Amino acid sequence: MRITKTALHALRLEMVHPLKTARGTYSAREGFVVRLEDEEGRVGQGEAMPLEEFGTESPADCERALKEGLNHLERSITPLPPGEGRGEGATDPRLDPRRLPLPLGEGWGEGLQTRTPAARHAVEQALLDLEAQRRNVPLSQLLAADARSVVHVNALLGAASPEALAQEARRAVAEGYETLKLKVAGRPLAEDVTRLSAVRDAVGAAIRLRVDANGGWTEEEARAALEALGRYGLELCEQPVAPENPEALARLSEHSPCPLAADESLALPDVTQHILKHPETVGILVLKPMVLGGLLPTLSLAREAAKRGMDAYVTSSLDGVIARAGAAHLAAALPSGRYASGLGVGHLFKDEPGNHPFRPVQGRIQIPRTPGLGVN
Question: What is the DSSP track for 226-268?
């Protein structure tokens, strides 16, 4: 496979309403779209949406890495050898990251994190899109021969007031979502209790509710918050304490009324390795491909976690359609589909296309059967 043409485009996604998290308030997301064309006219797409506070490089570093990487890609690229990926002559459905040429970042195939993970994500995604098209299979089946055809997703509620949250929750349930997620922390606990109570009253006991603190609580605050919020029947809580403190996460896990999940901690390679070596720290991993440097290293982490008895699900870092499409293919290829993935965020953006195949319907994404990524 030889890359004959490359293109890099700026991307800006305006949000309908600013989204407040423990790490900041976001009114827009900015990034880049990569397009690669091969010698047979196929086009592969990838997306980079850097967000430094979530563990990626800066936008300036991302753009610089992408420009350098695309210059390198305008050379001959050797296709993956037969047997890696699913297609004619395939014997192993898994891809070996070391066999996919990638000109970004050091430690490719040796670690989960690079200096420019968002840029690396974009180029890797575009290459995988091309490779799946070349083999005439959906990207999910390139990642795993037994990939699921349907991915369950949660709805992220972004309204500020309890009343607006309740209305948003009712709409989401009416649309078919069975799992709802709220951002907590960064405000008085009493406010979060009122917000969560309003949502639970609005949707009833059968709907699964999860909360995400984005590491915004101290250990003492997290203990009090989990006790108070846990009364509303939480499915799980994402990242209750600072990412660099897995010991606190382990202590909380012992007595938490709901399962805890590590999210931002996975942006720190040393902490990730600690969690893998000590699976009692947390039972669930929240996988952000944009932060982890691509679909392949993220899938590798999920498989390693599964060997240790941990579950995992995929979520976006408030990305655009192209990145979410890749994340949906990845979610379909995970060892387990027990937990809904966090890919139902399109309604948060003003100019979200209304007819793309990765828009959740009835709380589910049906993975397209078309070759490659499936986004035009």
Answer: HHHHGGG-EEEEE--B-TT-HHHHHHHHHH-SS-EEESGGGGS
3-137 in CATH: which number? 3.30.390.10
Task: Check if 183 is active-site.
Answer: yes
- pLDDT tens sequence across 254-272: 999 999 999 999 999 999 9
| 277 is a catalytic site residue | no
Note if the pTM is more than 0.85: yes
- Superfamily of domain 150-366 in CATH is Enolase-like C-terminal domain (3.20.20.120)
For position 22, what pLDDT does the model report? 64
183 neighbors 191 (Cβ within 8 angstroms): no
CA 334/CA 298 separation, integer angstroms:
10
pLDDT band with cut points at 50, 70 and 90 for residue 114: low
Q: Are 117 and 319 in contact (CB under 8 A)?
A: no
Q: What is the DSSP letter of 53?
A: G
Active-site residue identified among 181, 288, 307, 350: 288
- pLDDT for 107 equals 37
Q: Which of 43, 127, 139 is nearest to 87 (CA)?
A: 139
Confidence of residue 91 (pLDDT cuts 50, 70, 90): very low
The kind and range of the H/E element at 180 are strand 179-183
Domain ranges of the chain: 3-137, 150-366
Give the length of the chain: 376
Q: Are strands 364-366 and 150-157 parallel, antiparallel or unpaired?
A: antiparallel
Average confidence (pLDDT) over 197-221: 97
pLDDT given for residue 53 in this prediction: 84
Catalytic residue among 20, 67, 181, 183: 183
Tokens 């890359």 locate to: 3
> Cβ of 347: how many Cβ atoms within 10 Å?
16
Beta carbons within 10 angstroms of residue 223's beta carbon: 18
For CA atoms 108, 58, 153, 188, the dihedral sign is positive
Question: Mean pLDDT over residues 325-331, rounded?
Answer: 98
